[in-house]
Amino acid sequence: MLWEKINRFWKAGLTETLTDTRMPFGNREEKNKKAPLFIMIMLILLILAGCSDRTPEGSDNEITQQDSEAYSFDKKDSASTECIGEILSDIYEEAVDTNTLGSLDMMRRMVARLGENGYVAVDSGNQIDMTQAEQAFDFCKAVDEKEMDELTIIVVMEMGIRKFDLKTEDGNVNIVRGYYQYDQNGSLQNRSTVSYPADFWQYTEEGYLIFEGSYFSDESYILTLSDTPEHTMLRILPLDEKCREYNRKYILPVGYEQNNLFLCNWSEDDFGDLDFYDLFDRFYPMTHSQPVPYMADENLGVGAVYQIQGELFENVIGAYFNMDHETLRSKTTYLSELAAYEYRPRGFYEVEYPDIAYPEVVSYTENEDGTVTLHINAVYPGGNMSKEFSHTTVIRPFSESSFQYVSNEIILPEGYHDIWWHSNRLTEEEWKEVYGGT
Q1: Model's pTM, two decimal places?
Q2: What is the span of the domain harbouring residue 417?
Q3: Does residue 353 sit in the same domain as residue 428?
């Protein structure tokens, strides 16, 4: 039994492999990432309606109930939120005074303080272990066994909190979600409250609670002629802090956005299909502590082209790879007469879907040769997947701030799978076709 294993985990303090309760993967509809019309529509919808599980900081006190059959909760929301505000007040004031609001350290302190006061709490980015997680496990067990139970989960955010009041009966789950934002006096004020039944509910093998539902919103209905969906993914199972440290230091700074470092197979013997222009974009801020200065043209119909000094380009890439200049030049466009690399920044036709997976290191091996092998899951809240795919990445640490990427192997689920939200840069032929060679 899944829940018997969970109970043994908590009693023994050991991580066991849990029965996979995920639904079949299924094929995802193909997306045409290149279509400008699609991109413009998505950007408008995201700006006006908000993204997936993120709570919009919308109009004050918007109270919405999606279904008249949704369970009602005791009207203790105001008092409990007031209590939460008092519990966190000194940490919040310190964070404001030190300009560290939203920092990992401050959010960790807030989550820990809530846990000390008996609350189930976690941060919005799932970067901190959930406190009082046993209560969440017990609730999931009650759902599975069709018993009655209630649970409140506090999600700490940069400028406030989300509070989920969950209630289950006969295997059904209903949610009341409130979003509270700090005002200028440091008090938590209700910005929106919505209620909906969970259309999707799952505790996954990777230790995540995932649920989603839809509620009615006037603004969203005008745009989409449908209810507003809300996805929520919260890690319940604790994660080794060393895994979190490795993730923050080596994997999250690059991530999956607009690069393929972790999306293809490569090694120091064969760098495969790595796009070193995308990696220049990711590594430049890491080496120079400032954004890449080579920007796309303000005119969407014009393709910008730069010549980057060879030494600069090679130093940025060489900071994180053990490769010679000849290999790098063979993978790029090197202008020997100018001793420079031709560089075209990503333009309008190379943007990616904004709602993508994020990496999470789940285990590691420290090898005898000084390298570290990291086992990583791609967590995709928007797709209700705690492991969209996985990859094994080897890094070579040198010092506290110096390291190299050694290899990567991506592991896709069985059957058809397309990382549809990723977009490659235009090839030279495609670029000329789009911009007319200008």
Answers
A1: 0.80
A2: 240-438
A3: yes
